[in-house]
Amino acid sequence: MKFVIDMMGGDNGLKATIPSMQVFIKKYSDVEYFLVGDINKLSEFNNLKNVHLVASETVLPMDADPLTALKETTSSLMVSIKTFLENKCDALISAGSTGALLSASIFKIKRLPNITRPCLITSFPTVKNNKKFVVCDLGANAANTKEELNQFAIMGSLYYSIIYDEKNPRVYLLNNGTEEEKGNDLTKEAYALLSSNKSINFKGNIEAREPLFGDVDVLVTDGFTGNVFLKSVEGTAKAMSSMIKEAFKKNIFTMIGYLFSKSGINGIKNKMDYKNVGGALLLGVNGVVIKAHGSSDARSFSSALLNAYKLTKVDIVNKIKKELE
């Protein structure tokens, strides 16, 4: 396997990527690595037999617009894209600008045949042990059509089937009510199209408060709404963790209670921590392109690397390409 890593992208840059790569390279020797960035700051990776250092000159800001990104050919992101193509690599991982990564991937790595719009997809935990669901799109697109939501449902179903070995995953449309007539023009039109699609197991509309209870496999939504859903879940989990901490600090009795319930609370915290998820896959392009969280630390970036490794190992792109054909 061949991986390209944008070492400079994200809010934390090398502070996140260097420590995560140090551990990952030792653990996964069956991967050939292309580390893109300021090679003067990557000297510790010199002389490793399965590591290549690729020089880049600039770093795209996190708010870089797609057009600027494509013109900035010396940036770590654009050099990573070039390296990916020239060396016929399997996966590309970056915590850099979402818009820049998505646009560059679509224009340079290209879409799979017949895919109108790629989408960002990742897994979410639920209250049920070992049960997860996936959401697409999480923000690759600001607006979508009913046909694109239909494609997201098809690709999401294939993704879930491959990753979780589920033959007939349940597909739901994120909406502001469960009734068929609920929603805006997009969700109403998408509902009709999804209902007539015999290649998926469409179950209808679902409200945002329900998926975390574990009765959904694939949650379909437009990119704007999906990104709001993602940030809301992350924020709620963080707020709940903070409130639980404060509750146990009230007095000596609550502190003692915490000691008895510590393992359970830590389990909840670990389950809901986005840093364990491993970024989102840009589903629909001809390669494993992983968008790590922009604020990734070493642990979060390590999760993104592991996600790329697992998806490449199961040959996710070629399997979905074959199924779409």
Summarize, please.
With 325 residues, this protein is of the alpha/beta class.
Folded structure, characterized:
45% of the residues lie in helices and 17% in strands. It contains ten helices and eleven strands. The protein has an eleven-stranded mixed sheet, sandwiched between helices. A hairpin with a 4-residue loop joins strand 10 and strand 11 (288-291). The radius of gyration is 20 Å and the shape is globular. The protein starts with a strand and ends with a helix. The mean pLDDT is 89.
Topology:
Elements: E1 2-6, H1 14-27, E2 32-37, E3 51-55, H2 66-71, H3 76-86, E4 91-94, H4 98-109, E5 119-125, E6 132-136, H5 146-164, E7 170-174, H6 185-195, E8 201-206, E9 218-220, H7 223-248, H8 252-272, E10 280-283, E11 288-291, H9 298-313, H10 316-324
Parallel strand pairs: 1-2, 1-4, 2-3, 4-11, 6-9, 7-8, 7-9
Antiparallel strand pairs: 5-6, 5-10, 10-11
Helix pairs in contact: 1-9, 3-4, 5-6, 5-10, 7-8
Key phrases:
alpha/beta, 10 helices, 11 strands, 45% helix
Element order: H for helix, E for strand: EHEEHHEHEEHEHEEHHEEHH
Percentage of β-strand residues: 15-25%
Instruction: Calculate Rg over CA atoms.
Output: 20 Å
Tell me the helix content. 40-55%
So how many helices?
Answer: 10
Q: Which blocks of ≥5 consecutive residues have pLDDT under 50? A: none
Question: Biggest sheet, in brief?
Answer: 11 strands, mixed
Shape: globular
Class based on secondary structure composition and strand pairing: alpha/beta
Q: State the distance separating the first and last CA atoms.
A: 25 Å
Q: Strand tally, please?
A: 11
Summed over residues and divided by their number, the pLDDT gives a mean of: 89
Strand order of the largest sheet: 3-2-1-4-11-10-5-6-9-7-8
